[in-house]
Write a structure and sequence with these properties.
Number of helices: 3
Number of strands: 3
Largest sheet: 3 strands, antiparallel
Radius of gyration: 12 Å
CATH architecture: Orthogonal Bundle
Mean pLDDT: 93
Length: about 80
């Protein structure tokens, strides 16, 4: 629920959000995201992660409390606004 509006996430979006939330306010590197979201496949390309982040970011962009930021060349961070 974001701003009293229910937001529906896919399984992968939910997994990513949960993982980033557990590491809130810290940079999460691409390899750690791959291990957490696709444990059976360590050959996931960064553009696949970027695409998942894009869709998640669109769904949570109206949040007053959290923002999903890119840490260029390293990974992503879910941080407090």
């Amino acid at each position: 629920v974001i701003n009293q509006r229910e937001v529906f996430l896919t399984k992968k979006e939910s997994d990513l959000f949960s993982f980033l939330y557990k590491n809130k306010n810290n940079t999460v590197f691409y390899d750690k995201i791959t291990s957490a979201i696709w444990p059976q496949n360590n050959k996931i390309k960064n553009y696949i992660i970027a695409n998942l982040v894009f869709h998640l970011r669109e769904k949570i962009k109206e949040s007053r409390e959290l923002e999903l930021v890119t840490v260029r060349g390293r990974g992503y961070m879910l941080r407090d606004k």
